[in-house]
Amino acid sequence: MSSRYNPAGHRSTLRVLSIFEALSATKSGLTMAEICRIVGAPKSSLFSILHTMADSDYVSYDETTGRYSIGLKTYLLGKAFDRESGGLSSFETAMRKVVASCGETCQLGVLDHGRVLYISRVDSPQHIRLSSEIGKTLPAHCTAIGKAILSRWDEESVRSLLPFPFEKTTEHAVKHIDDLMRQLEEVRRCGFAYDHQEMAEGVECIAVPIEKGGRLYGLSVSVPAYRFDTEVQNGVEHALSDARDQLERVS
Amino acid sequence: MSSRYNPAGHRSTLRVLSIFEALSATKSGLTMAEICRIVGAPKSSLFSILHTMADSDYVSYDETTGRYSIGLKTYLLGKAFDRESGGLSSFETAMRKVVASCGETCQLGVLDHGRVLYISRVDSPQHIRLSSEIGKTLPAHCTAIGKAILSRWDEESVRSLLPFPFEKTTEHAVKHIDDLMRQLEEVRRCGFAYDHQEMAEGVECIAVPIEKGGRLYGLSVSVPAYRFDTEVQNGVEHALSDARDQLERVS
DNA sequence: GAATAACGTTCGTATTTACGAACGTTATTC
DNA sequence: GAATAACGTTCGTAAATACGAACGTTATTC
To answer: Smallest Cβ distance to B49: which of A13, A25, A69?
Structure first.
């Protein structure tokens, strides 16, 4: 799909996007030197790119600290996504309803290069809760959202697109791709994907796949293991199917 | 501030940003040819850039329609801005309060290349209201937000950065930059900037400048002329100064 | 349904960008 | 406070991108 000449992609473009990515993962901005280290490019190269980005206000430059951060115009791009794609606001409404119904943290993710990219979260009102971060990724094979989405793929795609051997997480995680295939078959059958402390010890997750606007999402609820039982599981599954039905109906 | 070699900026970067900008201004996506026309670059050049953007999910490509639009990852960049910059959420809270208090549309903007860039809006509950669009720009000299922000600049910057002669809007708009200077002096004195049907016939606006996070914003309320009088004006000014005080206090 | 137009894609060379090395300047170290 | 390290910036050449022209393919026109 990329240009034949440079199969890796357009270098300057990749760098612009990497700079955005680096800046979005920071709290108080980055210096040029820090960006260079993260992006893995020499400062003489990023110099003009960074200045162009700052001049156009997609990146903001703080003169007093000498640090770059995400700019106002980039924020507006995100708003445009909301407006165009029917928005994620419908997801957020549904997620708030899920949290209200079962009292646990609800998360939304997609698959990005074989990993789960978390795009939205509504926190549990309880004190003990999860620490995942929006914009961060986790392996797909050991997360409920990952399995939920993969269950909608054909076997061949899963085998070719998922990095194997799997990244190691906890003892409970599925170790071989054939075992994962069996789990996915089970997800297709019952509609729910489970992560029984596979990603992190003591965290149980349940997820459903949701198709919306031609895209596959995974919607999950995470529960600390010590308050997880059959009753909680039933409640979560009920809340998740309600959310899925509501979201897929309006499309 | 740009690189000495290419005073206009880094070409590839400018193109990436232009593509983002073009995509953010559309409702249902653009084809490659359309993007080329908007950006003003040949398709052989944008080909690889666009594919690289789509591969990284910052841009999404709809195979059925052949159209590109803003991608999910770009949305996450916007969220990162919110998280980093203390967010615009505090502005939005304040704006909702303004609308609740005076019942008219409230808008937030900044200056971008001598024009007012609208970044947020909370609509009036009334039926007759405005049609401005988030992400769009208007001339600064004939808008309340523009004048509010310019009042915090020194005279030399205003004269050098504002495009003159002014773009023509309505008969009521200020025509000469010297007249604008007198108006800005008045804004500095009383704290409020006015647009008396200067941008659009029948629309009155009042704005205050707000400094937050090292950036200058303008917060305005727009009122249809037929329901504008001294009493309304007092109410709006009261609501705007409350909002400004609240926003600048927390910083 | 033939002809035309528009689209996305590929190619080769002209042009621009890339980046190691070196600069002056500002933090850090001792 | 001298010496060192790190930063942002500039330069020249090596290497990448840019883009007109031409391709096959898909819409449009008549």
So the answer is: A13
Q: Give the burial class of B160: count Cβ atoms within 10 A of its Cβ; 0-12 exposed, 13-18 middle, 19 or more buried.
A: exposed
Six token digits for residue A29: 């901005």
Q: Do A84 and B75 touch (CB under 8 A)?
A: no
pTM comes to 0.81
Note whether A67 and A28 are within 8 A (CB).
Answer: yes
A8 CA to C3 C1' in angstroms comes to 40
Rounded distance, CA A248 to CA A211, Å? 7
Q: Where are the alpha helices (DSSP H) in chain B?
A: 11-24, 32-39, 43-55, 72-84, 89-102, 144-150, 155-161, 177-190, 230-250
CA-to-CA distance for A240 and A229, rounded, in angstroms?
Answer: 16
Query: For chain C, which bases have at least one atom within 7 A of a protein Cβ?
Result: 6-12, 16-22
Contact B238, B97 (CB under 8 A): no
For residues B184 and B109, give the distance between their C-alpha atoms in angstroms, rounded to a whole number: 17
How far apart are the C-alpha atoms of A45 and B158, rounded to whole Å?
Answer: 34
Q: Are A67 and B28 in contact (CB under 8 A)?
A: no
pLDDT in tens, B221-241: 999 999 999 999 999 999 999
- Rounded alpha-carbon distances, angstroms, from residue B101 to A158, B226, B240: 55, 19, 10
pLDDT digits (tens, 9 = 90+) for B54-84: 988 899 998 888 999 999 899 889 888 877 7
Q: Which of A238-247, B132-141, B192-201, B219-228 has the lowest mean pLDDT?
A: B132-141
Q: Which of A119-128, A201-210, B93-102, B223-232 has the lowest mean pLDDT?
A: A119-128
Q: Which position has the token pair 């990436």?
A: B16
Tell me which residue has tokens 């399995």: A147
Q: How far is the CA of B182 from the C1' of C13 (A)?
A: 57
Quote the pLDDT of residue A112.
Answer: 87
Name the burial class of residue A250, with classes exposed (0-12), middle (13-18) and buried (19+) by CB atoms within 10 angstroms of its CB: exposed
